[in-house]
TrEMBL record:
It comes from the Bacteria. Residues 35-179 form the Oxidoreductase molybdopterin-binding domain. PANTHER family: OXIDOREDUCTASE MOLYBDOPTERIN-BINDING DOMAIN-CONTAINING PROTEIN, PROTEIN-METHIONINE-SULFOXIDE REDUCTASE. InterPro entries: OxRdtase_Mopterin-bd_dom, OxRdtase_Mopterin-bd_sf. It holds the Pfam family Oxidored_molyb. This is Sulfite oxidase-like oxidoreductase. It comes from Trebonia kvetii.
Amino acid sequence: MNVVSRGFHGRGRDGDVKLPPGQYLEHGFPVLQAGPTPPVNTATWTFTITTETGDSTRWDWKQFTALPAEDITTDIHCVTQWSKLGTNWRGVSLDTLLSDIETNAGYVMARSYGGYTTNVPLPDLRDGKAWIAYSYDGKPLHPEHGGPARLLVPHLYFWKSAKWVTGLDLMLRDKRGFWEQLGYNDYGDPWREQRYQGD
């Protein structure tokens, strides 16, 4: 059984483009994931934010896509060493989603269809740093890239931008997600090359 999809390899670097250390410039959009693409229907899709006290706020697809959205142009960096520059997304800012939620949490666990999880410090999702994206290059986000919606945290390695996101659990203490339990760095800053625990 294939657990990790093909494409986990490196290549040479391109020209004089400013990239994080150890990265190469990618012109395509590789599909990398642990496990198969889950079938997610927008008719049953929900996104839930649960606080450390157990209070929850939930949106269905119609409610979610009616929220104020933003167009985002950003570079993305995968831990497998590729970087893609100037990608175009549309989504709802986490600032919008968290605006009416009271919390003392410092950390977040993102949860996805298929059981994937990843941990992120809550400050890394605020102040215009993160979105729940549902469009890429002007089209609905394709399932292989996390559609109908994925977390987008472009200043961290891309495994932190959980595909097929279903919600965020706000936590007082940090816990490791799927890849972090398998040895990936808890934070994942590409400019500091934080690929693995201890980096």
